[in-house]
Amino acid sequence: MFGKLISNILAIPKGAFAGQIVNNRLNPLHLAIATTGYQIQSRTLQIPDRFGFFSPGPPRLQVHEGLSFIIMVGWICLNLIFNAFSVFVCRLYGLPTCQKLGAAFSLTIVPGVVLFWVGAVYGRRRAPGYEWGDWKLRKD
Fold first, then answer.
1. Kind and range of the H or E element at 69?
2. Eight-state DSSP code of residue 49
3. Taking the domains of the chain in order of start, what are their residue ranges?
4. What torsion, rounded to 10 degrees, do the Cα atoms 65, 58, 22, 1 define?
5. DSSP for 8-30, written as a single string
6. Strand partners, 26
7. CB atoms near residue 27 (< 10 Å)
8. What's the whole-model pTM score?
9. 48-105, pLDDT tens digit by residue?
10. 82 in helix, strand or coil?
11. Rg (Cα) of the chain, in Å, rounded?
C-alpha cells in the first residue's frame, strides 16, 4: 500500500514534465489538469470561455493548456523562491532596502501571469480553423 502511494506520487512529476503526446496518446495528466481547470473556471468562478485560461476543447488544445498551466505554476514558484532568497540575503547583510526589493521582485509575478493569460486566450491555437499537426507512431 505504501509502495503504491509512493509510486503514484512519483508518477505525477514524471507525467507533468512529459510531452503532450505519451505512448502515442494525449498526456492524461495534462488533459486532467485542463478539464478540471475548465470545470472550476466555468462552473465555480463562472468566467466566460472567451476570457478563461482553459477552453472546452478540442482535447489537443486542452492538453496544450494543461502543459501551459504547469509551466506557469512552476514559473511562479521559482519566482517566489528567488524573491524569498533575495530578501533573505538582503536581510542577512543588513541592507536597508529589503522590503522594497521584495515588493519589487513580487511585482514581476503579475506581468508574467498576464502574459501567460494573453498567450492562452489570444493564441493561434484557439483560432476556429487551427489544424493540429498529427503525431506519428514512432518505432524505436
1. helix 59-92
2. T
3. 23-125
4. 80
5. HHHHHHHHHSS-SEETTEE-HHH
6. 21
7. 21
8. 0.79
9. 988 999 999 788 889 889 999 998 999 898 888 888 888 888 888 887 777 677 677 7
10. helix
11. 19
Cell of 39: 470545470
Based on the number of CB atoms within 10 Å of its own CB, is 63 exposed (0-12), middle (13-18) or buried (19 or more)?
Answer: buried
Give yes or no for a contact between 74 and 112, defined as CB atoms under 8 angstroms apart: no
The SS3 assignment for 75 reads helix
Q: How big is the chain, counted in residues?
A: 140
Those residues whose C-beta lies under 8 Å from the C-beta of residue 124, and which sit 6 or more positions away, are: 130
Residue indicated by cell numbers 547583510: 93
Local structure of 2: helix, strand or coil: helix
In the block, which residue shows the cell 483560432?
127
- Digit-coded pLDDT (tens) for 21-31: 777 788 888 89
Contact 31, 62 (CB under 8 A): yes
CA distance 54 to 71: 14
